[in-house]
C-alpha cells in the first residue's frame, strides 16, 4: 500500500514551522537553524554530508526513515527556492545539482514551467494543482512506493486539512519562535483521525507520530 | 530558598490552556475534560477523591509534586469562579467548602473583597495587584515555602512575561483545540532563560519542566 507521509517536520513549542522573514540567506527566517539542530547531530545527517560520527539514538532512527520506501515528493514553491525564483527561467532550485530527493519531485506553483531532470534521480515537475490532484500525479510517479509531503508549513497544513496524510512524523523543538508561519491553524480535532505516539529524546526534542486510525 | 512554581499546567498541542466558551458548567469551555484526563487516571488524583487504584507512573509522579512544599497560591479570578462571581457577595468560590489549596490563596481581581477563611487551611485573599506585587504578598504568607502560580492561562503567561517563574511543569496533551486562550503569545525566546526537559508518558502526554537557568 502506498502511503502519503510526512517525515521529520519540525515545529517550535508554540507551533511555528518556520520563523518570520524567510529569504534566500535565511530559509527559515529568524528561526535560523534552531528547528533543525537536533537533526544535524545525527549519524544519518552527517553521513549524508560525508562526515563521520553523529549520534545513533532515537533522533537518528527517525531521520533514517526519511528516504526508504519513498517514490515521489511533493513540496511547496517556498521549499524549492526563495520568493521570486519563478522570475528567473534558469533557476534550478535551492538544492544544488544533485538534490537530496532522488525521485520525481512535484513543486506546487502558480508558475509552471517545463520539467527539469537533475543528477541523482531527482526530476522536478512544476504543477499548479490542488493537494488531491498533486497527490494523484505523485502517486502515479511513485509507482507503488510512498509519497512524501515535504513542506513547507502551509503545504503540510493544506494536506492535513484535506485529510490526505496517512502518516506524519512531527518533531516538537522546545523553543518559542513567537512569529512566523503556524502549522496548527484550522486543524481543530485532527487527533480524532489519528493514533498518536510521543517519545522525547535526550536531545530535548519530542518526536510525535500520527498514524491514520484504522490504517 | 522559596521558589515560584507552576505545577501540572496543561496545554493542547496547539498551545491552548483552555478552550473557548468558558462557563460555570464548562470551566475549560469546549475542551471539556480533555486537557486533564491523564491526571484523573493517576493514583494521587484518585486518592484525593477517596477512590482506590489509579496509575503510579510518571504522570502520577508529577501530580504528587503539586502540594508538598507549597505555602501559598496565586490564581486568577477565572480559576476562583465563573465570570461575574464578583457580583454575588456571598460567593465563596468554585472549589467547595474545603478547597484543595490548604494555604493562603491570593485571587487576582479588580473587585477586591474581605478575606474568607475556609475549611482545611485555605484562606482566600482578594487583591488588585501586579504579578510582582502579588508575589511579594504571597511569598510573605508562604513563610519560607514555595509559591504556586495556579493559573489560568493569562495569569501563567503574565508571570512568565514578568520573569517571575522559577520552575514550571507543563503538560502537552496531544489534542488540537483550535480555539480558546493561548499560553505562548508574546513569549518569544523564553527558552533562553530556562533549562528545559521533556519526557513523554505512556498516557500520551509529554511532561516538560522549565527550570530557571542558574537556579
UniProtKB/TrEMBL annotation, chains A, B:
Where does the Bacterial bifunctional deaminase-reductase C-terminal domain start and stop, copy by copy? 9-189
Record Pfam families: RibD_C (PF01872)
State the SUPFAM superfamilies in the record. Answer: Dihydrofolate reductase-like
Superkingdom to which the source organism belongs: Bacteria
**Name of the protein in its database record:** Dihydrofolate reductase family protein
